[in-house]
Design goal:
about 220 residues; alpha+beta; Translation Initiation Factor IF3; Four Helix Bundle (Hemerythrin (Met), subunit A); 2 domains; 4-stranded mixed beta sheet; 4 strands; binds fe (ii) ion
C-alpha cells in the first residue's frame, strides 16, 4: 500500500495528496503525532469520500488506512467493521504463513500490526458500539454485549500469547495460540456480523448510522 508521511504536512497538503487518488485506492497515513483533528476535518469536508481504519495508535506512532470511495456509498456498521475483520484476518493469515517459512522478523512485524489493529477494533466496539447497542435494544447486564466483552478478554489473551510466541520464534507455541484464537474469534466475528452489527444498523436512521461510523473511524 502507498504510504504518505504526514509529519510536516498541513491539512491542505494532505487533502491535496488524497484528492489525487482514484476511487477504490487506499493509502496509509503515517506520522509521529496524533492526527484526530486532521481526520475530523477531512470527514467534515468530504463526508462520504473516505473510509478511515486505524492500523496503529501509539503516542509517537500513528498509522491510518484511508480507502477512497467513488460513489457516495452510505455508511454502515456492518460494512465498516466487517471490512476491518477481513483486514485483520488477512494480516493474521500472512503472519502464520511467514512463520511456517521461518521468516520471523516479518512475522513479528505483522503480528504487531494484527495486535494493535485488533485491540483498537475491540476498544471502539466496547467504548462506542456496545453502549449504543445496549441503548437501542434495551439490553445491558446479562445481554449479548456482556458475552462479547468476555470473549474479547479471551481473544486478547490468545493474541498476547501469539505475540510472545512470535518473539520467541517458537513455532509450536505460535500454532497453539493461533488455534486457540481461531476457536473463539471466528464465531465471535460471525455473531457480530450476523446479529449485533446489522441489528444496530437497522435500529438507526441514515444520519445516526453515519455519525456512529464516523465516531468509530475517529475513535471519539
Ligand atoms: Fe468484537
Ligand atoms: Fe468485531
Amino acid at each position: 500500500m502507498e504510504v504518505l508521511d504526514i509529519d510536516g504536512l498541513d491539512y491542505d497538503d494532505m487533502l491535496q495528496q488524497l484528492s489525487c487518488l482514484e476511487p477504490g485506492h487506499s493509502i496509509e497515513l503515517v506520522g509521529t503525532r496524533a492526527i484526530v483533528g486532521l481526520l475530523k476535518r477531512l470527514l467534515q469536508d468530504q463526508p462520504l469520500r473516505y473510509e478511515l481504519s486505524t492500523i496503529r495508535r501509539r503516542p509517537d506512532e500513528w498509522r491510518v488506512k484511508v480507502i477512497v470511495f467513488g460513489e457516495e456509498e452510505p455508511r454502515s456498521v456492518t460494512s465498516y467493521l466487517g471490512r476491518d475483520h477481513d483486514r485483520l484476518d488477512d494480516l493474521l493469515q500472512q503472519a502464520v504463513k511467514l512463520a511456517a517459512h521461518g521468516e520471523w522478523a516479518e512475522t513479528q512485524s505483522l503480528i504487531a500490526d494484527f495486535r494493535d489493529g485488533l485491540f483498537w477494533h475491540i476498544e471502539i466496539e466496547e467504548r462506542l458500539l456496545f453502549p449504543e447497542f445496549e441503548l437501542l435494544s434495551g439490553s445491558s447486564a446479562g445481554g449479548p454485549t456482556e458475552a462479547m466483552r468476555s470473549e474479547h478478554d479471551t481473544i486478547k489473551e490468545c493474541v498476547n500469547g501469539l505475540v510472545e510466541a512470535a518473539g520467541a520464534e517458537d513455532h509450536d507455541e505460535l500454532a497453539r495460540h493461533h488455534a486457540d484464537l481461531l476457536g473463539v474469534l471466528v464465531e465471535h466475528n460471525m455473531k457480530e456480523e450476523s446479529i449485533l452489527y446489522p441489528e444496530t444498523d437497522r435500529a438507526l436512521n441514515g444520519s445516526a448510522r453515519n455519525l456512529l461510523v464516523e465516531r468509530m473511524m475517529l475513535g471519539v
